[in-house]
Amino acid sequence: MTIRVRSLTDTQERQAAIPALSDLRIRVFRDWPYLYEGTADYEAEYLAEFIGAPGAVLVVATDDVAVVGAATASPMAGQKPEFQEPLQRRGLDVARIFYFGESVLLPQYHGQGIGHQFFDAREAAARAAGAAQASFCAVIRPDGHPMRPNTPRDLTPFWRARGYAPVEGLTTTLYWQDVGDADESPHQMQFWMRDL
Predict the structure, then answer these.
(1) For residue 2, what pLDDT band results from cuts at 50, 70 and 90?
(2) pLDDT tens digits, residue range 87-97?
(3) Fewest Cβ atoms closer than 10 Å to its Cβ: which of 22, 28, 58, 81?
(4) Predicted confidence (pLDDT) per residue in 113-147, tens digit
């Protein structure tokens, strides 16, 4: 097993990675806590838009040639209103914030330091772009949710060790279809931030 983590900067290489990244996002986000019922078409469109934005970062982890993990980031000023508006209402300058999109990794690769490498690469890109803060969103699920596993994986200690903290009262709402549901539903997302 030879794990390699690197940023993809070449446009053609990024485009070529989209099918594997789409599949990875669907597989990882199908599990708790996202329970996301994704489609390949939506994922391909979303990823092409995200990684095509000015200043966007795409970091991938490969095991030999197979993509086993990925992380994205881009300037907050290029994100959708759902992400920008809550920050602006709070008086934060979105031009000084870098947004970290997904960080997805197949379960069998957990505990090998890959998540740290994802954060290191995105934080370095954010600093290079002149950002003063980094931010990401995490879904909020109730403890009594019927699909909650008995011992869910808790990333809170990892995020806190990286210097991130939830910003009290700073949330947004995103819509997606949960596993087993017929339609999309609203999901509250908590902003986490840190100074760079």
Answers:
(1) confident
(2) 999 999 999 99
(3) 81
(4) 999 999 999 999 999 999 999 999 999 999 899 99
| pTM as predicted | 0.94
> Whole-angstrom Cα distance, residue 176 to residue 185?
6
Closest C-alpha among 45, 53, 100, 106 to residue 72: 100
> How far apart (Å, rounded) are the C-alpha atoms in residues 35 and 194?
27
Residues 21, 25, 29: CA angle, nearest 5 degrees: 170
**Phi, psi torsion values for 4, nearest 5 degrees:** -125, 130
Q: Where are the alpha helices (DSSP H) in the chain?
A: 11-29, 40-52, 81-89, 114-128, 156-161
- Contact between residue 58 and residue 14 where contact means Cβ atoms under 8 Å apart: yes
Place of tokens 């403890």: 143
How many alpha carbons lie under 13 Å from residue 11 in its C-beta half-sphere?
Answer: 5
C-alpha to C-alpha distance for 71 and 61, rounded to whole angstroms: 9
